[in-house]
Structures are given as structure tokens and as C-alpha cells.
Amino acid sequence: MILKPFLRENFIPLPVGFISTINKEGIKNIAPYSCLMPVLRPLDLICIASAKRRDTMDNIKEMNEFVVNMTGIDFAHKVVPTAKHTAPEVDEYDYANIEEKQSRVIKTPGIKGSYAWMECELFKIYEEPTYNLIMGKVVNLEADDKYLKKDGSLDVEKAKPLFNVGDSNGMNFCTVNEIGLHEPFGAMFPDGKDPLSKKYE
Ligand SMILES: Cc1cc2nc3c(=O)[nH]c(=O)nc-3n(C[C@H](O)[C@H](O)[C@H](O)COP(=O)(O)O)c2cc1C
């Protein structure tokens, strides 16, 4: 089947991260963002694509910081309430009945019950006429121990990360599973050694 090019996103299962921000008055905002990716290994940058008119966008420009909250499928029912248009003066923690978690490095709080939190300082905004790419520098990365394996990696069977696959009229929420195959980074290199391995020590 040949499809319209803009439907490309329907073939890339996307994470659902909840971006929390505050404005100058301290009013708190939450919005789900799926156009979300780390920028290469081992940088500490994260990129989100944002439409121009978002309280999230305005808050990031105002405060130069934000939190990427990664949750499990138990937050699926929080997606629509936080994605609904609300006036900037509405506290979306109250509106969506979400509890806040104090951040360690930045002022903006995160979301309690997430399996991981990325506290970010604004690195750069790439402005385009119809969208912006927001680059954040992760200044504190934290994960809830109860979703980690003994080696510190994410136990996806426990965390059940919230994902979605789009279709022509909406989003199908889903999660990910391990398939029982692990390959070291070094496997990509002719000598079997990962040139970045020192960074991970
Ligand atoms: C699953 C999901 C993913 C979304 N991803 C994005 C995204 O990556 N970028 C974006 O600009 N809007 C995205 N949106 C739309 C915003 O979440 C929505 O417009 C929200 O109301 C923005 O809130 P704000 O104005 O408080 O920032 C997404 C919505 C949903 C439901």
C-alpha cells in the first residue's frame, strides 16, 4: 500500500513523554510530546519538536528549562486531559489530577509516578516558520529504582513505557517488550571495541 507521505509517523512507534514546564508566575503546565529524541550517543542533549502555539513552548522560552517525564502505560488516561487546550493560567497538575515531584537541579517540578525524569536546561531553539525544534541539555537524569534491573538498565517489563502508534484518526497506545537479544555496542566495530566505552564507566 502506498500512503500519503505525512503519514510517516504511523510507521514509527513513538514514545509519549510528558513535558512539564512553569511560567514566570510559577503556573505549572504539562503536555504530552511524542516528537522526542535523544541526540546521538553519548551526548546529553534531547530534542523535541513543537508546534509554535504551545504553552510548553512559551514557558520554555520564558524559563529556559523543562522536565521530560517518562511514564508507564498507567498514565495513558492522563494523555488526553494534558493534551486538551487549557488557558495558560490553568495549573495542569490540578486539572489532570497529577502529583508533582520536586526536581533536584531546576525549579520546574516533574511528575510523581514516572519511571524516569530528565531535568533539562534550554540549549537552543531552532525556529522554523511552522514549528520549532527545542534542544535541551539534560542536567539531571533520574530513574525510579523499582523499574531498574540490577545493572541499572531499564526493566521494560516492569516500567511498561507508554508508546503510541498513529493511524488516520488517532493514536493506538502500546508498550514495548524485550525480545531476548542483547548486543554490546562494540559489536558494531571491526575490533569489537566500543570507542565510547570509557564514557560509560
Ligand atoms: C500522544 C500525543 C503526542 C503529542 N506530541 C506532540 C509533539 O511532539 N509536539 C507538539 O507540539 N505537540 C504534541 N502534541 C499536542 C500537545 O500535547 C497539545 O497540543 C497540548 O495541548 C499542548 O499543551 P500546552 O499548550 O499546554 O503546551 C501531542 C499530543 C498527544 C496526545
TrEMBL record:
Q: Which cofactor does it need?
A: FMN
In terms of superkingdom, the source organism counts as Archaea
Q: Which part of the chain is the Flavin reductase like domain?
A: 11-153
One GO MF term? FMN binding
Pfam families per the UniProt record, alphabetical: Flavin_Reduct
Keywords, A to Z, come to: Flavoprotein, FMN
Q: Family per UniProt? A: Belongs to the flavoredoxin family.
Q: What is this protein called?
A: Flavin reductase domain protein FMN-binding protein
